[in-house]
From TrEMBL:
<dbReference type="GO" id="GO:0004222">
    <property type="term" value="F:metalloendopeptidase activity"/>
</dbReference>
<feature type="transmembrane region" description="Helical">
    <location>
        <begin position="420"/>
        <end position="440"/>
    </location>
</feature>
<dbReference type="GO" id="GO:0046872">
    <property type="term" value="F:metal ion binding"/>
</dbReference>
<keyword id="KW-0482">Metalloprotease</keyword>
<keyword id="KW-0645">Protease</keyword>
<keyword id="KW-1133">Transmembrane helix</keyword>
<dbReference type="InterPro" id="IPR036034">
    <property type="entry name" value="PDZ_sf"/>
</dbReference>
<dbReference type="GO" id="GO:0016020">
    <property type="term" value="C:membrane"/>
</dbReference>
<dbReference type="InterPro" id="IPR008915">
    <property type="entry name" value="Peptidase_M50"/>
</dbReference>
<dbReference type="InterPro" id="IPR004387">
    <property type="entry name" value="Pept_M50_Zn"/>
</dbReference>
<feature type="domain" description="Peptidase M50">
    <location>
        <begin position="18"/>
        <end position="435"/>
    </location>
</feature>
<keyword id="KW-0862">Zinc</keyword>
<keyword id="KW-0812">Transmembrane</keyword>
<dbReference type="GO" id="GO:0006508">
    <property type="term" value="P:proteolysis"/>
</dbReference>
<comment type="similarity">
    <text>Belongs to the peptidase M50B family.</text>
</comment>
<keyword id="KW-0479">Metal-binding</keyword>
<feature type="transmembrane region" description="Helical">
    <location>
        <begin position="6"/>
        <end position="28"/>
    </location>
</feature>
Amino acid sequence: MALAAIVWSSVGIKALQFVLSFSILVTLHELGHFLTARWFKCRVEKFYLFFNPWFSLWKKKVGETEYGIGWIPFGGYVKISGMMDESMDKEAMKEPAKPYEFRSKPAWQRLIIMIAGVVVNVILALVLFIIITYVWGKEYIPAERVTYGIYADSLGREMGLKTGDRILALDGKAPETVDVVPIDLTLKGTKVVTVQREGQRLDLPVPKGFAKKLNKNQLKGFVTYLMPVIVDSVSNVKLTGNAPLQKGDTMIAMNGQPFRWFHEFEKLKKNYADKDVTFTVIRATGDTAQVGVHLDKKSLVGFNPRGVDKIYGTEVIKYTFAESVPVGIGKCFETLGRYITGIKKIFTGEVAAQDSVGSVLSIGNAFPGIWDWQSFWTLTAIFSIILAFMNILPIPALDGGHALFTLVEMISGRKPSEKFMEYAQMVGMVLLLALMAYALGLDVWRVFR
């Protein structure tokens, strides 16, 4: 019951962060359309957070506009009079254009209204990245501090890496931190990983198709930091002897079976679920002790291990606000560049779509299971710039599609017919719904897999 409560608590926190983040992004995006529409004297009939087919969770009419919250968390919308949108209000479009309608406004005004949501999301992302940089700075584990080296998991070993290797370079360039290695392999197409092994420098070529395997595994099963097992704090240890388990203890053996690293400890203790074991530990004083412990049914000992940040130490860079502006802007567009690169790799077949595309379930799962403001605002900033990019794509039913038609009108001097706009909107909606259904189906398949 306790474990179930923890799991549901984690899921609930993830869901709450997702709803709050998505609500901020969608509300501000639609507010961009709303304010510019009102600025150009357009009537806005509805302003909704989330979609509301058949019914709304809440709604209230203020003046000419109905404000509400829908029940399908896939986005939101503003319904502007005289505009062919997802409402598909064809009857209203048959009437003569009225001065307060979108279709009666000059093309340049309609273009501004269409791209306003994207502009707001870009501005939000830039502001958030700048503030995040200023408040939290940059904290990372420098690659040169990883003196123990890396633990090579199954994919790492497949590539030729070995546990204990120290990663020196990616395509000849020293990485800032080990954390960038799987990202660079999948997004930058790294060809050679240079390591130090037993005092020798070795160049390991990345096998063809390896990036696709790594992406399919969601960057897992590759490499992690090699760490000794050091007790950071004792939480719920069930002792079977007189010697206590203490903060600073380094575990080196279990029931006489020696181990040195955390992954060896994890593998070994699985054999002793709900059993008594004796750990050999080295105290912080240098003394050796034998500690008797009863493992629970999940093979848990009941202590918190010292984290990788404490073992290796982190580098923290703090920025003044003036310094945070260019750094934050750089982070924003670096994030966008990585996303675009990922999409390109899907279309070129370097990574499989079924391993990369995700729905709201994937987005929600990206948030941590505990409430962390730095992670929350960072993910919100990332999703904001991605939302801006996706919306500006020249696809009917998206802002970019409407903007494209308006640009064509401004260049050619000819406005697309209402019938054409109706069909384009229908095609766009079908495409978007199909993509959403595909992404949702993949997420459900991943859960059961």
